């Protein structure tokens, strides 16, 4: 993973990770949260998903959440508007040792708003604003921003998928990572789509400890 990303996720940049449900996106992000905890780095984690990442994080790091909550701020918006307010106010949570921000996922609550067609234009504009704020935060404070994203079917290619809000995400992203579940149980294909260069893909395995290049202890 470090080779694929050029020594891990970089500070000052916006890393966009997308894939189908259960493709391993959250485990991907939590692996870097674990690394941050081990380095004494503080993390801000925005979780818009219906389930909390705490249980999986505890499994990955082998510690109780109470032991690490001083290094991890977990923010859980209940609506797209609330998510926008949290993103806008993130600077209030940043301390000198904050170097990682994770958003899991940026587009879940956005897609719920899109059910109202009259709200679509406003929602697109708001998502663009949130992504821009996150990119600005990364650059201004030299923080690694990892944004997870869902997928949707491509209208012009039957069976193909693409990230939700592709044009917005492509505009703001420095790194684009696609995660795909393969037929073999627990196997994930991780591809770096941007920036181009070698190596551009790797096969990893879901384990109790996160993503691994070793197939043992397969989850």
Folded structure, characterized:
It is a single chain. With 219 residues, the protein is α/β, with parallel strands linked by helices. The chain has one domain: 3-Layer(aba) Sandwich (Rossmann fold), CATH 3.40.50.300. 34% of the residues lie in helices and 27% in strands. The chain has a nine-stranded mixed sheet with strand order 3-2-4-5-1-8-9-10-11, with helices on both faces. A two-stranded antiparallel sheet has the order 6-7. The mean pLDDT is 93.
Q: Which descriptors would you attach to this protein?
A:
219 residues; alpha/beta; Rossmann fold; two-stranded antiparallel ribbon; 8 helices; 34% helix; 27% strand
Quick summary of this structure?
This protein is an alpha/beta fold and 219 residues long. The chain has a single domain (2-212), classed as Rossmann fold (3-Layer(aba) Sandwich), CATH 3.40.50.300.
List the helices and strands and how they pair.
Layout: H1 2-5, E1 14-19, H2 25-38, E2 42-47, H3 54-61, H4 65-68, E3 72-75, H5 80-88, E4 98-104, H6 108-113, H7 120-141, E5 144-149, E6 151-153, E7 161-163, H8 166-172, E8 175-181, E9 187-194, E10 201-207, E11 210-212
Parallel strand pairs: 1-5, 1-8, 2-3, 2-4, 4-5
Antiparallel strand pairs: 6-7, 8-9, 9-10, 10-11
Helix pairs in contact: 2-3
